[in-house]
Amino acid sequence: MRQTLTVAAVLVTWLALPRHAGAQASPPPPALTLAAATRIAEAAQAEATRNQWNVVIAILDAGAHLVHLRRMDGTQLGSVDVAQEKAKSAVLFRRPTKAFADAVTAGRIGVLRLPGAMPIEGGIPLLVGDQVVGAIGVSGVTSEQDGQIAQAGTKALSAAR
């Protein structure tokens, strides 16, 4: 019994020790805040409003979880899911969805078999340095117009930093 308690005490002490004693802790990766997501959505909406386009704007974090969603008045309901899927694709593959659209247009239809790849322009990763912190997805008008709106949103993230 006494030996079991001693082994347990040593194990508890060992588990409590830092894993990398003496090593410098690396800073946590940047996170997409609600305030930043709101600024991005506002900039995207301003671009849509300027052009009289009604769209849905979805902002996802680096884990592809929804942080912010806007559905402008008069936008079709189907665009809610499409905007989120565009943003999810941009997060998962770390590239704009336009890259998939261009690949399909060039005849590389194998892209259509990639799970989660959305081959429609309008999803763009949000970067801090070279790190993806989330993505914006826009749906509601033509894919090129969706991409224009999404690009306006991404500029708000870089302007804030």
Task: Present the secondary structure layout.
Elements: H1 2-16, H2 34-50, E1 56-61, E2 66-71, H3 78-93, H4 97-105, E3 123-128, E4 131-139, H5 143-160
Antiparallel strand pairs: 1-2, 1-4, 3-4
What does this structure look like?
- 47% of the residues lie in helices and 17% in strands.
- The protein has helices at residues 2-16, 34-50, 78-93, 97-105, 143-160, and strands spanning 56-61, 66-71, 123-128, 131-139.
- Strands 2-1-4-3 form a four-stranded antiparallel sheet.
- The model is unreliable at 4-15 (pLDDT under 50).
- The protein is α+β, with helices and mostly antiparallel strands and 161 residues long.
- It has a single domain, classed as Beta-Lactamase, CATH 3.30.450.
- Helix 2 crosses helix 5.
- It has five helices and four strands; from the N terminus they run H-H-E-E-H-H-E-E-H.
- It is globular, with a radius of gyration of 22 Å.
